[in-house]
């Protein structure tokens, strides 16, 4: 079974330990023995929501806020630039979710 890692008991996201298609994955670490059904493919190193995260609620990893949900995030959904923003950098809301490139500044 594919696996992801929840680092801290307070975390509402886990990190994928391999590239995974939409399927059931085992949660290791602070939630050992649990499993979650992914809603979509998620790449190695990316985050999956372990719980429902409402818009404007904190995204928690390492037991600390690493971002704010920019819209409702469903359990099992990929957590990245398309649904999570920085509390510090307002430009993070305009980054391309796949490449991370700024979408508001054309580069030639």
Question: Can you describe what's shown?
Answer:
By secondary structure, the protein is an all-beta fold. It has one domain (3-94): Archaeosine Trna-guanine Transglycosylase, Chain: A, domain 4. The protein is 0% helix and 32% strand. It is built from no helices and 9 strands. It has strands at 3-6, 13-16, 24-29, 34-37, 47-49, 58-61, 64-69, 78-79, 84-85. The strands form 2 sheets. It has a 6-stranded mixed beta sheet with strand order 4-3-1-2-5-8, with no helix packed on it. A 3-stranded antiparallel beta sheet has the order 6-7-9, with no helix packed on it. It is globular and about 45 Å long. The model has no long low-confidence stretch (mean pLDDT 88).
CATH architecture group name: Roll
Assembly status: single chain
In one word, what is the shape?
A: globular
The CATH class label is Mainly Beta
**Beta-strand level of the residues, as a percent range?**
25-35%
Main β-sheet, spatial strand arrangement: 4-3-1-2-5-8
Helical proportion, percent range:
under 10%
What's the domain count?
A: 1
């Amino acid at each position: 079974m594919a696996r992801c890692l929840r680092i801290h008991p307070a975390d509402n996201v886990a990190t994928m330990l391999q590239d995974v298609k939409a399927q059931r994955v085992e949660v290791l670490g602070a939630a050992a023995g649990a499993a979650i059904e992914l809603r979509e493919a998620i790449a190695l190193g990316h985050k999956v929501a372990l719980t429902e995260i409402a818009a404007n609620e904190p995204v928690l990893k390492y037991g600390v806020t690493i971002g704010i949900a920019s819209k409702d995030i469903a359990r099992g959904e990929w957590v990245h630039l398309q649904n999570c923003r920085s509390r510090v950098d307002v430009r993070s809301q305009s980054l391309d979710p796949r490449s991370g490139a700024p979408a508001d500044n054309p580069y030639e």
